[in-house]
Amino acid sequence: MEPALEEFYAKFRVVELAILETPFWTWSVRPAQPTLGAGVIALKRHAFRLADVTAEEMVDLAGLVGEVEARLACCFGYQIMNYLMLMMVDHHVHFHALPRYDGPREFAGHDWVDAGWPALPAFGDAQHADAPHLLLDIRRVLQEAGNLTR
User: Fold this and answer.
1) Three-state secondary-structure class, residue 110
2) Model confidence over 54-92: pLDDT tens digits?
3) Does domain 3-147 have CATH number 3.30.428.10?
4) Measured between alpha carbons, how far is 59 from 40 in angstroms, rounded to an integer?
5) pTM for the whole thing?
């Protein structure tokens, strides 16, 4: 694996927190949760610019986004999705997929709030960072939802 991609995978714990993989992309739980179910959609090969993504990879991404939205709707009932492609620090093609909520949600005995609603997401928030097991709970629920959305 190319060093830039390896560094990205380690930072975002992509392998550990992977929910779903397609031939070209991986959707994983974002280690810091600004909103319940926040994820990262990352290209599985290193690319520095969106323009480097092939047409075949973009078609695959479109299918994955449909699955992301279906599973998040089924599990958490979001109002709208935000996809952020910032790449200011992590120079690899990826999107932060943030479900947005107009009110609090309860999951795994914890309250979750979208602190930025209805404006920009509070991207720096890391809700319940003191309970790291929640990331695996979110992963499990979203993986299992694949059976419900088909």
Assistant:
1) strand
2) 999 999 999 999 999 999 999 999 999 999 999 889 999
3) yes
4) 18
5) 0.95
